Amino acid sequence: MIRENSIKLSTSYAVASKVRDYSQLMKFNLTIMVVFSSAVGYLLVPGIEFNLVKVLTLFAGGLLVSGSANTINQLLEKETDKLMARTAVRPLPSGRMSETEATILAIVTGVSGLVILGLGFNLLCAGLSLISLVLYGFVYTPWKKWNSLAVLVGAVPGAMPLLIGWAGGANAIGEGGWALFAIQFLWQFPHFWAIAWIGHKDYTRAGFKLLPAGGEPNKLIALQAVLYTLLLIPAGLFPYYLHISGPTSAIVILLVTLFFLYRAVNLYRKADVPAARKLMFGSYIYLMIMQFALLFDKIG
């Protein structure tokens, strides 16, 4: 009996450990945010009503495709991940998982996710998801070692979740899809530069070139973050002008953008890691409030 219990505990631990490794490889926490954005984009399409089956299908397909992209990212960065304290404990650099297993996972999740999106929604939705996967996994990931324009390249797949969701509901992109894309595209820059500022030493050690203006944290980078945040003010009003959402959401988005701008200006004033960390958290607050405001004030 004792031996049986010991075997059961050992098996349970092994399964839990494997699930945890897969979750780390697919960056589950980040992927949930990505898929939530896709669901918001889908539900903002005029005439689309909440359908639990459709939303869960979008979640499933999005989780698999995004997880595949993140797995490809870690496969290509296995050696550089060993150089950073934050990433050295991941399944691949720590040796807990083989490259073959991770490659199989990337292929299975990527293909199955695209099939789910294609059959559950439309080919446009699946096609945009494929473009996002390729840009993130095979363009942005290696580009990070070349120059800081990688952030510009990475901002495209980073901004696509809302567009993918919109395409899933409308089977077209249109003005509404591009408006949502524009907001999240501009948001990427202050958000990512704040992260790169915080992890600058680790990123430099790994050979990543993620900061513009000489590659060192400085006020010029902070000023650029301020400028991109300023551009979010008119961009945040696009959904209102296009009659996607009402005036209440426009006001809420304006207020949260001003909060985000305050955090960016604070980084320019102080130019230190604590201010960058506040800007990073401010970016998450902005994204969540913006999306919920649009969703709850949807027109049509």
From TrEMBL:
Regions annotated as coiled coil: none
From the record, give the transmembrane residue ranges: 28-48, 103-136, 148-166, 178-199, 220-242, 248-267, 279-296
Q: What class of enzyme is it?
A: transferase
Write out the entry's keywords from A to Z.
Cell membrane, Heme biosynthesis, Membrane, Transferase, Transmembrane, Transmembrane helix
One Gene Ontology term of the molecular function aspect: protoheme IX farnesyltransferase activity
Question: Pfam families this protein is in?
Answer: UbiA
Cited function = Converts heme B (protoheme IX) to heme O by substitution of the vinyl group on carbon 2 of heme B porphyrin ring with a hydroxyethyl farnesyl side group.
Q: What else is known?
A: Carbon 2 of the heme B porphyrin ring is defined according to the Fischer nomenclature.
Q: Protein name, please?
A: Protoheme IX farnesyltransferase
| Organism this protein belongs to | Chitinophaga rhizophila
